[in-house]
Amino acid sequence: MQTDTVRTPGMFWGFLGLLTVLRLTLAALLPLTPDEAYYWVWSRHLQMGYFDHPFMVALWIRIGTWIAGDTPLGVRLLGPLSVLPGSWALFHAARLLLPSRSWPLSGFQAVLLLNATLMLGLGAATMTPDTPLVFFVSVALYAIGKAVTLPTNKALGWWLLTGMLLGLAFDSKYTAVLIGFGLGGAVVFSPAWRKQPGPWLAIPVLLATISPVLYWNATHHWASLLKQGGRAGDWHPARAIQFQSELFGGQIGLATPLIFGLFVIGLWACFKRNILLVWLGALPLAVFIFHAFGDRVQANWPAVVYPVLALAAVEAGRRIRWAAASGFVVTALVCLQAAFAFLPIPPAKDPVQRQTAGWPEFDQKLERLAVAQGATVLMAEDYGLASQLAFNQGNSGLSVFGTDRRWELFRLPAARGEKGLRVEEIHHIPSPLPMDVLCRESQRRTVRCYQMTVVENPLGVQLPRHS
């Protein structure tokens, strides 16, 4: 028995190490998505905030590309590497936040469930704001566990660390504020925690940690906070059934079906056994569900609560073997399809190929056309397309401009009076293809096509430069 007890942790962490190697390999194989290329553009011009999100994803990419270069692996490097320390933190958070469950088994189960979700399985091999968000939330759960279980005289430092970690999660993505509100609700309604100085002293630490993002917004007309907060102003209750279906369907897909079932059962069990996890998990989910009565909730938004749900699922005391195994199988199939497109899905309908396939060949054709037309500038209004062009044309000598208003928030060198080539995606593909239409292809099948238009003195105004 003692031998098995010693061997099991080694096998478990060895398995997570193997997963890390596989995720790093996938990160190197997959071309960047348009959003990843967009965040890479941010990393070339580090700021305290951006139009769409806070700065953390840009900082992580900047560190990764400093180590591994401006490559897909460099952009994503910190994603797979962050899962191991994040899993370690969640493993120990289970000991502190699940006192009714047997540890270390509870820690193993929580970590396996989170790693088996498609959200983390594929998401850790890509780089989005959710990547650092999930890491900082996982570590924050460990700090919260320490803060609520230690005596008052020993808990202060952990409360302060909790404030800093939740602030760093906010610096990753604004949805982290929901975890903060959940923790605040738990403190206010708990006399024992409410009387401690730690929770209240954690607030200025949190505010100091998020101050760079707040300062950037204050000096940029609150552009980012208004953009994200403005979503609440869109309200279409007649489409509530559609939005709710999309929300729950997206979570079934990202969690994988059996793990999603355990998440639901576990959160329900916490209403009787673990009120802290209810505050941390149910409050954010209630916000998303309420929002989905009048507007779309993107499938990745609830990622902020996945580490909490992994702990809640263990609290239910159900067996997780088949749920975790099915999650790893689904994730493996999706990753194999993303890397090798082994299923005969038309590229235009495959969500991964639609975003990533055929860019190197397309950029070579685009460069030749630009040279033939005497153009030195590539222009695109769509931020994802402009970002892909900037990433892939880095060595061509062509400048890339984004004409969407969000680029105005980059204080970069500008140029005017140059001959440009405007690149616009077209949805109706003419046959035969004219000379000014270029297409991305995968396995000799068309993915997307783009109209090229020569522009003299592009827009006649100064435009931000991306290269």
TrEMBL record:
- Major subcellular location class: membrane
**Topology in membrane:** Multi-pass membrane protein
Q: Name one Pfam family in it.
A: PMT_2
One GO molecular-function annotation for this sequence?
transferase activity
Write the protein's name. Answer: Glycosyl transferase
Glycosyltransferase RgtA/B/C/D-like domain sequence ranges: 52-216
Matches recorded under InterPro entries: LipidA_mod_glycosyltrf_83, RgtA/B/C-like
From the record, give the transmembrane residue ranges: 12-30, 50-69, 75-98, 105-125, 131-148, 176-193, 200-218, 247-268, 275-293, 299-316, 323-345
Keywords assigned by UniProt?
Answer: Cell membrane, Glycosyltransferase, Membrane, Transferase, Transmembrane, Transmembrane helix
Compartments, record wording = Cell membrane
